[in-house]
Amino acid sequence: MSPIEDLPKNIVLVGLMGCGKTTVGRKLQGLLGYPMIDTDHLIEEKARLSISEIFARRGETAFRELESAVLNELSAPGTPRRIIATGGGIVGRKANRKLLSRLGYVVWLQAPVDVILQRTGRNRDRPLLQTENPREKIEKLLVERSPLYHEIADLELETSGLETEEIACGILESARYHFAAKP
Ligand SMILES: Nc1ncnc2c1ncn2[C@@H]1O[C@H](COP(=O)(O)OP(=O)(O)O)[C@@H](O)[C@H]1O
Ligand SMILES: O=C(O)C1=C[C@@H](OP(=O)(O)O)[C@@H](O)[C@H](O)C1
Ligand SMILES: [Mg+2]
Q1: What residues does substrate bind to (predicted)?
Q2: Ligand 3 mean position to 5 CA, how many Å?
Q3: Is the pLDDT of residue 162 over 60?
Q4: Which of 13, 39, 104, 172 is the most buried (most CB within 10 A)?
């Protein structure tokens, strides 16, 4: 596989919780050997609290403020190219969508609701899903957010049934094609 350095932009992963942004981001890092950043991890470092603690102690609005602040920092000019995994709700704000579009090649990772439920049911670190009916919540978020992901996506990828390595390789192949077609 040829190196990513020929790609002119970051790779940005968006999509609902459990679609594999963090995991595929790590896989891309492994394949390419250059840094992967997860906005949720930057938020946790900044707040010195876990995502669940931020939601519990400060509320979702405070979390969204931190998320926008981190995205602004990542958008500063002159930063080296990276793989950026985002939190599923980052597309909620219009200003964030604008920054994400500018930041890189945006990949929307998708999965059916059943698969998302299965993948996210393994742990309790997603406060939005700590409800009586997580399926209903995922369905609602899917309806609300799908047009927002679509608005900024350069690539839309269904991930169910695919290994994370296959997804990462597919992203690289598509990104190369995209930038070759549009230098
Ligand atoms: N393509 C995949 N196939 C199987 N399991 C996956 C796949 N992508 C992610 N997972 C698993 O689903 C869970 C959620 O993945 P994660 O990367 O945290 O998603 P996100 O960051 O989009 O919320 C993790 O346990 C991860 O190992
Ligand atoms: O969809 C959301 O609003 C959220 C998704 C989470 O990230 P992942 O999509 O990586 O799970 C995390 O940012 C937070 O729990 C809120
Ligand atoms: Mg994640």
Answers
A1: 40, 64, 88, 145
A2: 25
A3: yes
A4: 13
- Residues marked as binding for ATP? 18-23, 126
Of the candidates 66, 57, 82, which has an alpha carbon nearest to the alpha carbon of residue 7? 82
* Average pLDDT of the chain to the nearest whole number: 93
Q: How far is the CA of 58 from the centre of ligand 2 (A)?
A: 16
Q: Tell me which of 44 and 3 has the higher pLDDT.
A: 44
Instruction: Specify the pairing of strand 155-158 against strand 104-110.
Output: parallel
Q: Specify the pLDDT at position 1.
A: 46
ipTM: 0.99
CATH of the structural domain 4-176, one choice from 3.30.1490.20, 3.40.50.300, 3.40.30.10, 3.40.50.12780: 3.40.50.300
Q: Which ligand is nearest to the CA of 170?
A: 1
Buried b / exposed e over 93-130, threshold 16 CB at 10 Å, is: beebbebbeebbbbbbbbbebebbbebbeeeeebbbbe
CB 40 less than 6 A from any atom of ligand 2: yes
Distance CA 99, CA 65 (A): 15
Q: Which ligand is the nearest neighbour of the Cα of 123? A: 1
